[in-house]
Specification:
single chain; 15 helices; 0% strand; cell membrane
Length: 348
């Protein structure tokens, strides 16, 4: 019952945010002119942009495949691509991308991958994923002062808030991994405060569950200490993966035959949006991403700003959602059915 309520809540929340986003972005706009501009875009530039979205999903599957091999678990790359697709699909449709990794662990379990192993791998992916954003964000903040004031003057508070939240998240997860005793103290203290404020009801066994969850952090610390080369390679792959997604905006820019703004400028402007919205509790950063795009890219796209935003979000978010949704269906029809068939055979 609780699971059904959560699914219904997430579904309603997604629909409401989507409806408000559509209204906020398109209210009062000349939709016919926008559609004419979109139809005029050169599809030869859009095709590589869509390919980069697929590459983005594939990049995580390579990380999963690579790290599984370090555990001695041999999987086919197409199976890892299905794991990756499941993660991105549920991350796209749940607040703060909270549903992706639990569903990945669920499907990995169906392939007989132990929960402690999947927990470590998914945690490292999360840390490196956000670490790359932090490095980019700090790089822009420290070395791009002129860039900040030229393009980001109106959204600097949002950018700094997003950067601060990502730094906090990476720092907190690192503490959890390398200082489990300190982390336990913080989490127990936080749990008691939430119970005193009646945000959480007092429950016997909750502390025990909390302590059991710390095992995953201890396992992650042990893995990091003994697989430093693997981690360095994962960070490198993650950096390329994220840059590929940011580059989609440049291909949309060129599809309108626009020029005058360089590739790296467009790429880092898109990176700024990701840094700003990554930690916000909205599915896919919906609503705020569109607003930031219309603010930041106004001098870049000019009169083609709205159709540019529609194509960029169409490829970068909705394209990712569609591709990952299709392969999530494949995962359910293959991994899910394969597991159910084995269970029936065992029962018989």
């Amino acid at each position: 019952m609780k699971k059904n309520k959560k699914v219904i809540f997430n579904g309603v929340f997604l629909v409401v945010v989507f409806a408000l986003t559509i209204y906020g972005v398109f209210h009062g706009e000349d939709l016919e002119s926008m559609m004419d501009a979109i139809r005029s875009a050169d599809k030869r530039w859009l095709a590589p942009g869509l390919a980069l979205v697929a590459f983005f999903i594939w990049g995580e599957s390579i990380i999963i495949w690579y790290m599984m091999r370090s555990y001695g678990i041999k999987l086919k790359k197409r199976t890892c691509f299905l794991f990756s697709s499941v993660g991105f699909f549920f991350s796209c449709i749940t607040p703060s991308a909270s549903g992706g990794q639990p569903m990945q662990a669920y499907y990995m379990k169906k392939k007989n991958i132990p929960i402690p192993v999947s927990a470590v791998i998914l945690m490292i992916i999360t840390i490196t994923y956000k670490l790359v954003l932090v490095v980019i964000g700090i790089g822009v903040a420290v070395f791009g002062r002129g860039f900040l004031h030229q393009y980001l003057e109106g959204i600097l508070p949002v950018f700094y808030l997003g950067l601060a939240l990502n730094i906090f998240c990476v720092t907190f997860m690192t503490i959890l991994v390398f200082h489990p005793l300190l982390a336990r103290t913080f989490m127990v203290w936080g749990l008691k405060i939430l119970e005193k404020l009646h945000i959480l009801r007092r429950k016997d066994g909750r502390l025990k569950k909390l302590e059991d969850s710390m095992d995953a952090y201890r396992d992650t610390a042990a893995y990091l200490k003994t697989h430093s080369k693997v981690i360095a390679n994962v960070i490198g792959i993650t950096f390329v993966q994220r840059m590929a997604m940011f580059a989609v905006t440049w291909f949309v820019y060129r599809s309108f035959s626009l020029s005058g703004t360089g590739f790296w400028t467009v790429l880092f402007l898109q990176a700024v949006i990701s840094v700003s919205v990554d930690m916000l509790p909205l599915p896919g950063g919906m609503g705020i991403s569109e607003t930031l795009f219309l603010t930041i890219f106004a001098p870049v796209f000019g009169t083609l700003l709205l159709p540019g935003m529609v194509l960029c979000r169409g490829l970068g978010y909705y394209g990712e959602l569609l591709i990952s949704a299709l392969f999530t269906i494949v995962a359910q029809l293959t991994i899910g059915q394969e597991h159910d068939s084995k269970e029936r055979e065992s029962y018989e």
